[in-house]
Design a protein that fits this description.
single chain; 2 domains; 5 helices; binds zinc ion
Length: 94
């Protein structure tokens, strides 16, 4: 059992509420802010929007946009600049 408790997002707009299904699946308390990123995260990283960011990833890693979007949905918002990028690096060039 994973006993790790993740710290809450410190963003002022972050939503905080108990995520019943996610908590049940994870076996620990899961707060709504865990799966949430401010929409400005893309602007902060130099992109106009989520779709713009995904298009850039598609071009940068030569991976079809469909695949990038599927992976983005799989990894979720919190992995957008982390796990998603790693996954694309892994499949780059195939
Ligand atoms: Zn929270």
């Amino acid at each position: 059992m994973n006993e790790e408790v993740l710290p809450c997002s410190t963003h002022p707009d972050a939503p905080h509420s108990f995520m019943r299904d996610a908590s049940h699946n994870a076996g620990r308390y899961v707060c709504e802010c865990e799966g949430w990123l401010p929409s400005s995260i893309y602007e902060d990283n130099g992109y106009t929007s989520r779709s713009h960011y995904l298009e850039c990833l598609s071009e940068d890693y030569n991976v079809p946009l469909d695949t990038v979007e599927a992976l983005a949905n799989l990894y979720g918002e919190v992995e957008m600049f982390d796990g998603l990028v790693t996954a694309l690096q892994d499949i780059e060039g195939y």
